Amino acid sequence: MSWDPVHDSRRAFLCCMRAQCAPGTAVGPVPLPGLVADPRIDAAAAVLLTLLDATTPVASCGTAAGEAVAAVRALTGSPLTGLPEAEFVLVTGDPAEAIRRAPRGDRDRPERGATVVVVAADVRETLTLAGPGIPGRRSSAVALGGDARRERERANRALPCGVDLLLVGDDGVLALPRSVTIVEGAA
């Protein structure tokens, strides 16, 4: 593993934070820790390696995600949990089910809503986004299918509760915070 826990973690953290500040904009590339062979899954593992510690419950959806989470857990000590209790979820494949089952927080503790880290697919759709961090509206190529978008909308109906998404691909990290709206039918 060629991961520098100080410098590479800092670079990965900055990618995540800059992506959160500019929703719908990919920020990267994310440094790769060399934990798994697939570079996209490895980049998602880098995000987890940066954001998790021994007190952060994590879950996975997808066989390849399970392998990456196991490698991250070996380094961070993060407890493995089921989807309904996870603070972070790594997803390979369609994220709709993970978004549906991930915790959303509640009125007294909205911060308990999960962050779902999705290994982005090649297929992307241009969507129009609106909300905090976006001046007016922004068109963005997003790897998030219709079922996942509908589950995200349901999960985020009772703001400030909801689920945040980090889509990790070859071009870096693209954030869809719960406060951002996908404007259907707009270009």
Automatic annotation (TrEMBL):
<dbReference type="InterPro" id="IPR008772">
    <property type="entry name" value="Phosphonate_metab_PhnH"/>
</dbReference>
<dbReference type="GO" id="GO:0016829">
    <property type="term" value="F:lyase activity"/>
</dbReference>
<dbReference type="Pfam" id="PF05845">
    <property type="entry name" value="PhnH"/>
</dbReference>
<keyword id="KW-0456">Lyase</keyword>
<dbReference type="InterPro" id="IPR038058">
    <property type="entry name" value="PhnH-like_sp"/>
</dbReference>
<protein>
    <submittedName>
        <fullName>Phosphonate C-P lyase system protein PhnH</fullName>
    </submittedName>
</protein>
